[in-house]
Amino acid sequence: MFIAALILVLLSGSMHAVWNLMTKKSLNKTVFLWSIHIVAGIILFPSFIYELTQIGLTATLLGFLALSFCFQAGYLVFLSKTYSYGEMSQVYPLMRGIGALLVPIASTFVYQESLSLMGWFGLTLIIVGLFFISDIHRGTKNQSTNSRKKLAILFAVLVGCCITGYTLVDKHLVGHFSPFAIIEISNISYIVISTRYVLRSKKLKQEWQRNWRTILVGSFFSPGSYILFLFAMSLAPLASIAPIREVGTVFGTLLGVLILKESHGARRIAFSAVITCGIITIALWR
């Protein structure tokens, strides 16, 4: 069962990195994210309503749904801000790294799961690699660049906190809803939060004219990446598989360096190897 979960998580991480690359390359990040969620939201809405009619909604379950709604909305709002200020090869590892750090720790308290000693060692390797890839310890003489970097790091940390939040909440919801229903909560949350801005921006037509192909691909990759992860959560302990999903960090770094031609490429790729070692350690000695 763990091997099947491992394969799903690796695919999930790869797809996640690709649609984040698409977001970074878009003209308007908020409009692009709204577009990929409106397409997926329309497709999944009928099945979501059907599931709601089949499940006895208790106050506790409604509370978890509301929490997931808030964390998912915050994740996407902060994501658009992060990519407006930072390089992908810098902020993507940081966003994913916060989740890699907090999810296993929190899951030991919330779900009584645990990692072995080697598992925690692997987790440490991941965090060290993410720290150096993120460049949070390096500054420049350009004040404007430093200001943008600080904003990028701030929003990336907020994204990571939201990742931790919805991962822990959705671990509970996956026992009551299908992965498709849970991903629809994300779609609805961002549609509700961002529709007013998108319509007032008057940039929707321009975004679709320029990026309609990537919007359609992103409409599949964005929900698809998390749906695969939700299926994996039903097969293996959260503390073991959540850090392994961070293999997407390696892909994201490579995409930023090789495709977007971002700076510090050699060093960031080198520390991706450290992350990979951490992922393998967790996978083998979970």
From TrEMBL:
Any one GO MF annotation of this record: transmembrane transporter activity
Protein family membership: Belongs to the EamA transporter family.
Major place of residence: membrane
Membrane topology value: Multi-pass membrane protein
Name of the protein this chain belongs to: LuxR family transcriptional regulator
Domain EamA: from-to ranges: 151-282
GO CC, any one term: plasma membrane
Location in the cell: Cell membrane
Domain of life: Bacteria
Keyword RNA-binding assigned: no
Membrane-spanning ranges: 6-22, 31-49, 55-79, 91-111, 117-139, 151-169, 175-193, 214-236, 242-260, 269-285
Pfam family, one: EamA
UniProt keywords, alphabetically: Cell inner membrane, Cell membrane, Lipid A biosynthesis, Lipid biosynthesis, Lipid metabolism, Lipopolysaccharide biosynthesis, Membrane, Transmembrane, Transmembrane helix
A GO BP entry: lipopolysaccharide biosynthetic process
Keyword GTP-binding: no
Organism: Paenibacillus albiflavus
